[in-house]
Amino acid sequence: FNALPSKRPPIFEGIPFIGGLLKFLAPLPLLQQGYAKFGEVFTVPVLHKRITFLNGPYVTSHFFKATDDIISQKEVYGFNVPTFGPGVVYDVDIKVRTEQFRFFAEALKASKLKEYQPLILGETKDFFSAWGETGIEELSSQMGSLVTLTASRTLLGREIREVLFAEVSRLLHDLDAGMLPVSFLFPYLPIQAHRQRDKSRKELGALYKKVIEARRASGAKETDLLQTFIDARYKNNFDGRALTDEEITGLLIAALFAGQHTSSSTASWTGYYLISRKEWWQQAVEEQRQIMAEHGEEITYERVQNMPVLHRVMQEALRLHPPLILILRYVRESFEVTTKAGKTYVIPKGDVVATSPTFTHSLPDLFKEPADFDPDRYLPPREEDQKRPFTYIAFGGGRHGCMGYNFAFIQIKTIWSYLIRNFEFEMVDSFPEPDYEGLVIGPKQSHIRYRRRKL
Ligand code: HEM
User: Fold this and answer.
1) What is the residue with the minimal CA distance to atom 38 of ligand 1?
2) Could you tell me if the CB of 442 is within 6 A of ligand 1?
């Protein structure tokens, strides 16, 4: 006997088929309208599917915490399979995937990050040595190029960065270009972008096979994700075997897709905020001055761990501009949610469920004056991100929270502490708007002026 009769969420009707589809892919106005009309939970019919939006921490706990046999990723993220390749991540069942994510965890643990950090710093120094005394640059494309270099070095492998960079970049570019909004629903649609994606994915597999064979034969041990995957073994109940070359290639591509555009978007937004908010630039400069006075010039792993001002600026840039604007799951077993006001709904088996970091971060009962850039909101006693689990969800959370969280902070703080110590900046164009064209959202292009100087 259920004292509170529970029911299906309200249906947000009247959105035509195609309109519903477009709105689902660029969902913010839809979420605002739906939330104003129905509150935290509502369902949007899109084609033959029901997409139920869960908005805010009161209704997303189960979404983030439940096991994959109840709330699953595979059905909604399967569009990645032709890009990542066979035998990895969303092409395998949850048991194998969990093993593969254990390899990610191994590759991204603190002792490895400590080895990657000097490599990231090295790439950063080299990259900006090509800038002049003063000049104008488009910041987001510069950050995109730099993050491609650091990712190649630390993730894809030393050989790729040093010898095969141009070729691999071309192939990865084709994989990127093959991931269109339409690919999300129809990943195998026979269009030119998909054909090119499949061709380049094959070439990448062949190229990696050679790199892996050569590295195995030489017996060399490198500092990169590739090495961790070469050394990894499935547990004994999976026969204890090593990864195949094809699996290694697939997991490296998956890591790159998880980490690259997300990081370059965040490095860019962090920069645009530092440059345009003088009070924050001043505080960040002061923080670097103090660190240098106490610990000297070198930007080490330990130092970047302890840059609270830069950390807060980056966290706030990410709150306002999370690169992943929708997180999705598929409901395998019906469940109930209860809203803040105490209303209970049943979310039926077969629904796609979605929550939006961007929208959640804009709710005024969670974040005071949510549209304001205010990095101090994370300081005690305010700690607005800590009030309730799943309030700050730029990195997701719970069972499938981002495994690259620390990597991302270390990388971006390394880049920006180097820039703050060596350059001054001003905006040339106006502060950028988000560019909602792709699946990972970054800023539109915007130019900055730089001038070299030493702190
Ligand atoms: C998962 C965001 C950087 C690896 C996620 C999720 C989000 C996210 C929102 C959860 C997706 C979901 O629940 O469906 C970000 C942001 C980044 C970033 C904002 C940068 C600022 C990275 C980096 C790596 C990485 C650099 C690796 C090198 C992963 C992996 C998962 C993941 C492996 C899947 C975890 C799982 O499903 O259990 N990330 N990410 N991420 N991220 Fe990141």
Assistant:
1) 400
2) no
Q: Is 330 in the pocket of ligand 1 (CB under 6 A)?
A: no
In which residue are the tokens 């959640």 written? 360
User: Is 1.10.630.10 the CATH number for 85-322+361-452?
Assistant: yes
Report the separation in Å between the CA atom of 59 and the middle of ligand 1, taken as the mean of its atom positions.
22
263 touches ligand 1 (CB under 6 Å): yes
CB atoms within 10 A of CB 45: 14
Q: Which residue has the tokens 């706990």?
A: 61
CA dist., res. 200 & res. 261, Å (int): 19
Q: Integer distance in angstroms from the first to the last C-alpha of the chain? A: 69
C-beta separation of 116 from 259 below 8 A: no
- The response to whether residue 404 sits with its C-beta less than 6 Å from ligand 1 reads yes
Digit-by-digit pLDDT tens for the chain (455 residues) are 444 556 999 998 867 666 666 666 678 888 999 999 999 999 998 877 899 999 999 999 999 999 999 999 999 999 999 999 999 999 999 999 999 999 999 999 999 999 999 999 999 999 999 999 999 999 999 999 999 999 999 999 999 998 889 999 999 999 999 998 788 889 999 999 999 999 999 999 999 999 999 999 999 999 999 999 999 999 988 889 999 999 999 999 999 999 999 999 999 999 999 999 999 999 999 999 999 999 999 999 999 999 999 999 999 999 999 999 999 999 999 999 999 999 999 999 999 999 999 999 999 999 999 999 999 999 999 999 999 999 999 999 999 999 999 999 999 999 999 999 999 999 999 999 999 888 899 999 999 999 999 99
What distance in angstroms lies between residue 257's CA and the mean position of ligand 1's atoms?
A: 9
Q: What is the DSSP string of 354-393?
A: EE-HHHHTT-TTTSSSTTS--GGGGSTTT-TTTSSTTSS-
Q: Whose CA is nearest to atom 21 of ligand 1?
A: 263
Looking at this predicted complex, what is its ipTM? Answer: 0.99
Question: How far is the centre of ligand 1, averaged over its atoms, from the C-alpha of 259 (Å)?
Answer: 7
How many angstroms separate the alpha carbon of residue 286 from the centre of ligand 1? 31
Domain residue extents for the chain: 85-322+361-452
Q: Does residue 34 have its Cβ closer than 6 Å to ligand 1?
A: no
